[in-house]
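Re: the 208-residue chain
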Amino acid sequence: MNNIPSGIVTFLFTDIEGSTKLSQEFPETYTEALKKHNAILQNAVESNNGFVFKTVGDAFCCAFQNAEDAVKSAIDAQIKFRSEKRNELQIKVRIGIHSGKSEWSGTDYMGYLTLARSARVMSCAYGQQIIISDNTYQLLPKTFLQKGEISFRDLGERRLKDIIQPICLFQIVSSGLHEDFPPLKTLDARPNNLPVQLTSFIGREKSI
């Protein structure tokens, strides 16, 4: 890629939900399914002016100069995944998008906090879901937001693991995408009646 995104970069991170379990349950077909998954993501990113700068197992790390391109890429990929012929092995990909300052070093992106936040946004999503941060939402042009073909469900400010300040998150809603999901997997999710944890105890961060 000639023009590698830099400055304010929009990152799109993905992974396959339950990939380790799937690879054990379907040892004969998982490898081929993974190849299709890789091809779909690569094409969706590159056809929307994106840059796949790293893959780790089934996880893709992608960069875009424009937030709009990242959103289009995510939607294109999810629609393609859903249109694939269904069998017992169903791959569900979760996608997180976040924007922030970062520079390309020649081999990787610099800007640890931006990259860490991008990873955390992705990790709170479910397979087939696309979650974006407010940083990315604010970068989307008004003409794109007003088209009506795509909407953004406000999920409020959420506390993500190891991120001190809460981040406002949105779910992308569009024709062809799965829409209904359980509550996000964030620190403020309450699967029971216990109150939200407001403080952490020194020396117990690993258990939180």
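Residues 7-207 form a domain with the Alpha-Beta Plaits fold (CATH 3.30.70.1230).
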